[in-house]
Structure formats: C-alpha cells, structure tokens
Amino acid sequence: MEVSTAIANRRSVRKYKPEQISKADMSKILEAARLSPSARNDQARKLIVITDKKIKLEMVAACKNQSFVKECGAVLIAVHNPEKRWSAEDCVIMLDHITLQAEELGMGTCWIGAFEEDKVKEVAKIPADMRVALCMTIGYPDESPAARPRKDLDEIVCWEKYQ
Ligand SMILES: Cc1cc2nc3c(=O)[nH]c(=O)nc-3n(C[C@H](O)[C@H](O)[C@H](O)COP(=O)(O)O)c2cc1C
C-alpha cells in the first residue's frame, strides 16, 4: 500500500472484531513503533501493549468509560520520560507510525486522549516519574467509518508568514 493511500484511508475505528491480533501483524506494528524517529534519537519512551481482557476492562474506566476500549485487540499506552525534552512528541510520532502501519495491514486504530492519567498509571503499573502521553486502541475493524471533514488547505496553510 502506498503511504498516501494509508493516510487517505485511515479512520478512527471504534468497533472491532473480537479476534486477537495475529503475531505477524503485531510484530509489524511494533517494528513500525521501534523505527519511528525521536529527538536526538533518545528513544525515551515505552509502548505498553495490553491484550489481557481484565486489564482492558480496567482501561475502560481509566479512559472515561469509553466502552469500545475493551472491544479492541489491544490497548496501547505510550509512556514518556518528562525529564527528556520532546519525549512526549516522540510518543505521538510513534503512535502515528502505528496508525499508518495498521492501515496497511487492514487494521483500525483510534487515538485515546480522554483518559485519567493516574488511573492509567495504576492499571499499567507505570512508575510515578513517568508520564502517559496518549493511548490508542488497535484491532481488526468491524465498521467502515466515513471520512470526517477537514478544513480546506488555505485555512491551515500560510506561506512565508502567519496570516
Ligand atoms: C490526540 C487525539 C486524541 C483523541 N482522543 C479520542 C478519544 O479519547 N476518544 C475517541 O473516541 N476518539 C479520540 N480521538 C479521535 C478523533 O476524534 C478523530 O481522530 C477525529 O474526529 C477525526 O476523525 P478520523 O480519525 O476518523 O479522521 C482522538 C484523536 C486525537 C488525534
């Protein structure tokens, strides 16, 4: 799949088939995460992959009761070290790589920004000095959402100066 096709076709998927993510697909997803760039190549981030049913259920509560969180193949938590400048951004880049790799594999993802950090840290046993950047659901889609609208280019792009 062309990268441009993956970018154009990606949607937030909130309904998943109950099947587990295959080992082959999961290793491609994790490799996309591993290869993503980071500031100074620090790689000061961790990706927690939650596949256990009981822990996924706990993640629903930590993610403001978004019930689809328990239906996905895996919940991903991107964790960064706040002492490392840009490590939060590095997490976002890592997750974005995952969204596009997932698209190529026929999988769906949804960013999860609505979460309570303390609860996520408790569920996933994340050390106190680490921060949760973002979470994401991933799995085999059981819906084909329509494209959400986007602003026109001239509303978001300015040339040479802000205007
Ligand atoms: C940083 C971020 C956080 C988001 N948090 C949530 C969330 O908590 N729950 C949810 O259902 N969707 C969440 N979304 C998905 C957005 O609602 C979605 O990307 C947007 O509506 C555009 O739709 P699309 O992804 O299908 O193009 C989030 C997206 C981003 C980028």
From TrEMBL:
GO terms for molecular function: oxidoreductase activity. Residues 7-74 form the Nitroreductase domain. Pfam families: Nitroreductase (PF00881), TM1586_NiRdase (PF14512). Keywords: Flavoprotein, FMN, Oxidoreductase. The keyword Flavoprotein applies. Belongs to the nitroreductase family. This is Nitroreductase family protein. It comes from Methanomassiliicoccus intestinalis (strain Issoire-Mx1).
